[in-house]
């Protein structure tokens, strides 16, 4: 139903923020991982989001100028990007992954940055839920026209 | 002076129900109205079924997003409220027409 456009859009926002939260928790969990399957230490991951295009599949007839069908359909996650910033180097000669000079490469995950990203993701999630509830309240209010 | 642009939203509603056009004969009006009702009931039924399926999938652990289940439940609730309101309107219109004949 085209009636639920804004609810679907907010739903896509919720999925995107949940993916972001999952990636943040993975980053925090792997903050000291010096090994990965592909070799080398863990590198910080970031989600990549893309705005969905508005759909023009409906024959608009004489009411082409309506702005409703030019609004996008929400957000879509198109991939998970790896952060290329330099890794943390620490001097631990007794570590099993130490190189010949005794330095170990730790992941480039900054706990403070991850915590602020987490707060941002949580607030964005709540904002999407609020937007969805407001859209639903508007719909329920419009049903009162007939009362 | 009040601008005529205030009528714009009402005109846009014709886009959502393509059968609701000004018709020429009474039979066309009856057919299009019942097809509107049918279409509305079908979509309400679909939304209910979708909500049921998603709830079952959440309970059995197949889906990971709780918000998908909640969104489907909300859509079903709004659709059912709308259907019930339309049903009340239809019944009241029917009653008035029947009362018209008995006076």
UniProtKB/TrEMBL annotation, chain A:
GO cellular component: bacterial-type flagellum basal body, rod
Residue span(s) of domain Flagellar basal body rod protein N-terminal: 7-34
Domain of life: Bacteria
Keyword Lipoprotein attached: no
InterPro entries, sorted: Flag_bb_rod_N (IPR001444), Flagellar_basal_body_rod_CS (IPR019776), Flg_bb/hook_C_dom (IPR010930), FlgC (IPR006299)
GO biological process, one term: bacterial-type flagellum-dependent swarming motility
Keyword annotations from UniProtKB, A to Z: Bacterial flagellum, Cell projection, Cilium, Flagellum
Predominant cellular place of this UniProt entry's protein: other
Domain Flagellar basal-body/hook protein C-terminal positions: 101-143
Keyword NADP carried by entry: no
Subcellular location as annotated: Bacterial flagellum basal body
Description of how the protein assembles with itself and partners: The basal body constitutes a major portion of the flagellar organelle and consists of four rings (L,P,S, and M) mounted on a central rod. The rod consists of about 26 subunits of FlgG in the distal portion, and FlgB, FlgC and FlgF are thought to build up the proximal portion of the rod with about 6 subunits each.
Entry similarity comment: Belongs to the flagella basal body rod proteins family.
Protein name (database record): Flagellar basal-body rod protein FlgC
Source organism per UniProt: Candidatus Desantisbacteria bacterium CG23_combo_of_CG06-09_8_20_14_all_40_23
Gene of this entry: flgC
From TrEMBL, chain B:
Keyword Amino-acid biosynthesis: no
Pfam families: FliE
This protein's record includes keyword Chloroplast: no
Broad class of the protein's primary localization: other
Gene Ontology annotations of biological process type: bacterial-type flagellum-dependent cell motility
Keywords per UniProt: Bacterial flagellum, Cell projection, Cilium, Flagellum
GO cellular component: bacterial-type flagellum basal body
GO molecular function: cytoskeletal motor activity; structural molecule activity
Coiled-coil ranges (or none): none
Superkingdom assignment: Bacteria
Cellular localization per UniProt: Bacterial flagellum basal body
Family: Belongs to the FliE family.
HAMAP family named in the record: FliE
Protein name per UniProt: Flagellar hook-basal body complex protein FliE
Organism: Candidatus Desantisbacteria bacterium CG23_combo_of_CG06-09_8_20_14_all_40_23
Gene expressing this chain: fliE
